[in-house]
Design goal:
mainly alpha, 434 Repressor (Amino-terminal Domain), rod-shaped
Length: 173
């Protein structure tokens, strides 16, 4: 079992629980084969796993019982990682819940953005109608002023004629 993992280039952290569930002789066999495949000596494995070389030697010789944390560090190093803690399932669940919350917030923001875009479009249409109405009012006022200007010019001409006529009569008297 897990012979294909010996030469695997992309072992994932999901493999750790499965590897740790192997019976001790099979796990030790996998460990030795993987270490040989990588070409690592026990001191090199010690550097990668942060497990003292003496502990590695005693475990491999069967002189020491390995603790879970020690084996986890060794397996993780053999997988290509370093001695770091794997997140517990509770932490992973919290992170997934946080991601789901963020995804929901993104969807809510996208919906809100669509609503705002629709409101802006409606406001643009309303303002366009208002602007067209104002433009029509201004045209009306301009036409009124033009007409009024023509009327005032005619009145002015009439008044000038009246003044001329009055002046002519005064001179004639």
């Amino acid at each position: 079992m897990f012979d294909r993992c010996i030469k695997c280039e992309r072992i994932g952290q999901d493999c750790v629980p499965n590897l740790l569930a192997l019976p001790w002789p099979e796990l030790l066999d996998w460990w030795k084969k993987r270490q040989a495949f990588l070409g690592w000596t026990n001191p090199a494995l010690s550097d990668k796993s942060a497990v003292p070389v003496g502990t590695i030697n005693r475990i491999k010789a069967g002189e020491d019982d390995a603790r879970y944390s020690t084996m986890r560090s060794i397996i993780h190093a053999l997988m290509g990682g370093y001695s770091v803690e794997f997140p517990c399932q509770k932490k992973l669940d919290q992170e997934f819940a946080h991601i789901e919350t963020l995804e929901k917030q993104c969807c809510d923001l996208a919906s809100a953005n669509e609503g705002i875009a629709a409101q802006m479009k409606a406001m643009e249409e309303a303002h366009r109608s208002e602007l067209l109405a104002l433009k029509a009012d201004f045209k009306e006022q301009i036409n009124f002023l033009k007409d009024n200007n023509v009327f005032l010019r005619e009145q002015f001409k009439w008044a000038q004629e009246q003044m001329k006529n009055t002046d002519t009569r005064r001179k004639g008297e």
